[in-house]
Write a structure and sequence with these properties.
Elements (H helix, E strand, L loop, with lengths): L5 H5 L9 E4 L4 E10 L1 E4 L2 E10 L3 E3 L5 E10 L8 E3 L4 E10 L3 E3 L4 E4 L5 E4 L3 E3 L4 E3 L3 E2 L5
């Protein structure tokens, strides 16, 4: 499994972009801070450290999409269900707390990995799993969805 992201996080700049975050294929972006996003769309590589809220969906695109998160990530809200979709060959790596007011959609051949032993997942929708999905690492599954 991967090493802790904490040391890398300390070296990152603060996020100063817009509320619409798109990481294109071939891009490798990292930042820290706190932000409320409209959406996150990752075709490249993204490292987020801090406290993040996404009002709409998070999409991690097929083949090379990588989203690494250290801290807290909340997707959707109670009356507005949204999802994280991890496409084939894409990876979501979590070190911290992940809350989804909606579904976690793990497509065929996707990966979700938890770093360390203290990560917590709270999914209010369902976990949809395709074939050959990798779920790695230790985590507390608050709603028993996995």
């Amino acid at each position: 499994l991967s090493q802790s992201l904490a040391a890398t996080c300390e070296t990152l700049p603060d996020y100063e972009g817009t509320s619409k975050l798109v990481v294109n294929e071939g891009e490798d972006i990292g930042f820290k801070g706190a932000k409320r996003f409209n959406y996150i769309n990752v075709s490249g590589s993204l490292l987020m450290c801090g406290s993040w809220t996404v009002i709409n969906d998070v999409d991690i695109k097929k083949d090379n999409g990588l989203l690494e998160m250290n801290g807290t990530l909340v997707v959707g809200r109670n009356r507005k269900r949204k999802e994280i979709e991890i496409q084939e060959g894409a990876v979501l790596r979590i070190e911290g707390n992940l809350t989804i007011y909606g579904d976690l959609d793990l497509k065929n051949g996707s990966t979700i990995e938890f770093i360390g032993t203290d990560s917590v997942v709270n999914i209010f929708g369902e976990v949809k799993m395709g074939d050959n999905v990798t779920v790695a690492g230790e985590f507390e599954d608050v709603q028993n969805k996995f």
